[in-house]
Write a structure and sequence with these properties.
8 strands; 46% strand; mainly beta; four-stranded antiparallel sheet
Length: 100
């Protein structure tokens, strides 16, 4: 049993790398995500086009969790690069189960 007035919220994060279209199930306790397009093609994140080098952060407030699935796809920019490379980094911040 926790005798503290307000318990600390423990969290961790993980980063996954994707090089092709995919669907990602979020961690059940996901509070925030960061998306980075590290390739030279356009990244389609939930229907939003992200150009090469672009990143996006979606943060949650304290005690909020993000539910659902992430859909990723890739398209060629115009003009197309000589050697297309799809590459996306997805970082999820998630709460850890508490003993309190």
């Amino acid at each position: 049993m926790c005798n503290c007035k307000e318990a600390l919220l423990a969290y961790n994060f993980k980063t996954d790398v994707f090089a092709g279209p995919t669907q990602i199930d979020l961690d059940p306790l996901c509070n925030a995500i960061i998306i980075k397009n590290a390739g030279n093609t356009n990244l389609i994140f939930q229907g939003d086009i992200m150009i090469p080098g672009e990143s996006k952060a979606i943060g949650g407030n304290r005690m909020e969790i993000l539910r659902g699935r992430i859909d990723l796809g890739f398209t060629l920019p115009v003009p197309a690069p000589p050697v297309p490379q799809n590459l996306a980094f997805i970082t999820q911040k998630f709460y850890l189960p508490s003993d309190c």
